[in-house]
Amino acid sequence: MPREYRTIQEVAGPLMLVQNVEGVTYNELGEIELSNGEVRRCKVLEVNGSNALVQLFDSSAGINLSSSKVRFLGHSLELAVSGDMLGRVFDGMGNPIDGGPAIIAEDRIDINGLPINPAARNYPSEFIQTGVSAIDGLNTLVRGQKLPIFSGSGLPHADLAAQIARQAKVRGNDQNFAVVFAAIGITFEEADFFITDFIKTGAIDRTVLFVNLASDPAIERISTPRMALTAAEYLAFEKNMHVLVILTDITNYAEALREVSAARKEVPGRRGYPGYLYTDLAGMYERAGRVLGREGSITMIPILTMPEDDKTHPIPDLTGYITEGQIILSRELYRKNVIPPIDVLPSLSRLKDKGIGEGKTREDHANTMNQLFASYARGKESKELMTILGEAALTEIDKKYAAFADAFEREYVSQGYETDRSIEQTLDLGWKLLGMLPKSELKRIKPEMIEQYYPAED
């Protein structure tokens, strides 16, 4: 029977100080019972001798210091897990909000899991098809990878996230593939968009959806991604599934972390974020990967909005250090109505070479990828020259590269949110565009592949 305390000393915003406690531990869950019988939940943030500082999950309004009681439950926040989670929608605390019954738990798991031990990691090496050409063809996602999407305020990262969640698959093993989608600090309209989209397209059947609204408490925002990762670990390592985890928006998570840190009067780090932001993000991101001797895997796509489109801001900066690349959305492409507006030149997947080639995608993938990058970069330079000097100053080959760059953005990158391209369709489209250039310009492709795949002249 948990011991009850009537020793609440102080309540300041979302924080509460309880004195003369015994055996209370960090992250332990607690309950506050008000004089009218209402029960609210809290979590231990700090223990100093016999004093415990707790954070409320609900409002502090109405808490009477003398008549309210606190009891600590002896365990931290847990998620009830089961194979029946697929197809369900939960709030940020793991409670069903889709009108269905509560989950009959096969297990209850502490959400504060640990990063995968580097010695136990298996190297990511298998291609995941997202159906988005700019990712599959040029910045390939590999099973077990962490590949963030860097967006900006007002850019359509929510549409891209929903598209990837709908279309992603491990080729040849689609039956054993699941998506865990965590929406962190979003508006009600965005939540309704995700839920409606997943139900309408049938993607909900293989998805576990966690929704935390902007109106929910900050402490819940901190728990939501951990809930999602706990569900993913269960499906991957207990049910042997290949799980894609999509977290949007990590910026809202970091803002909640800063809010809690400020309430605790901690010394701030860069731009007011806590000094442990790097450690906190790494502890989350590094829960993704493959484990030696286990069939399942966790692949992660964290999505974040860069404040003022600044890549040097602490959140994208630290995320870039921890993860294996980044997909960057461009405001310039969005203005040109390129959908999705993925800027392929600064984007990078550090593990793409491990997931492509014969037996994984196609033998010409690496060659065409390198040639498309090089040709698009040269085309962009030609367009800049055209802007400065005029079209008459360009050579004939420069004009072909400029036309290639326009066609590449219009046909290859801009595919819309409803088009699902196989990797073969993506590679064939790449060859069609390379057909705009003379064979002599394809210096990054082996001659035998040019003979086999270069489009025949009409």
TrEMBL record:
Organism phylogeny: Bacteria, Bacillati, Bacillota, Clostridia, Eubacteriales
List residues of the ATPase F1/V1/A1 complex alpha/beta subunit N-terminal domain.
Answer: 8-74
Q: Keyword Transport, does the record have it?
A: yes
Species for this entry: Feifania hominis
Q: Does the keyword Ion transport apply?
A: yes
| Entry's Gene Ontology BP terms | proton motive force-driven plasma membrane ATP synthesis
An example Gene Ontology molecular-function term? proton-transporting ATP synthase activity, rotational mechanism
Spell out the family assignment given in the record's similarity comment.
Belongs to the ATPase alpha/beta chains family.
Listed name of the protein = V-type ATP synthase beta chain
Q: Which PROSITE patterns match?
A: ATPASE_ALPHA_BETA (PS00152)
**Known Gene3D superfamilies for this protein?**
3.40.50.12240
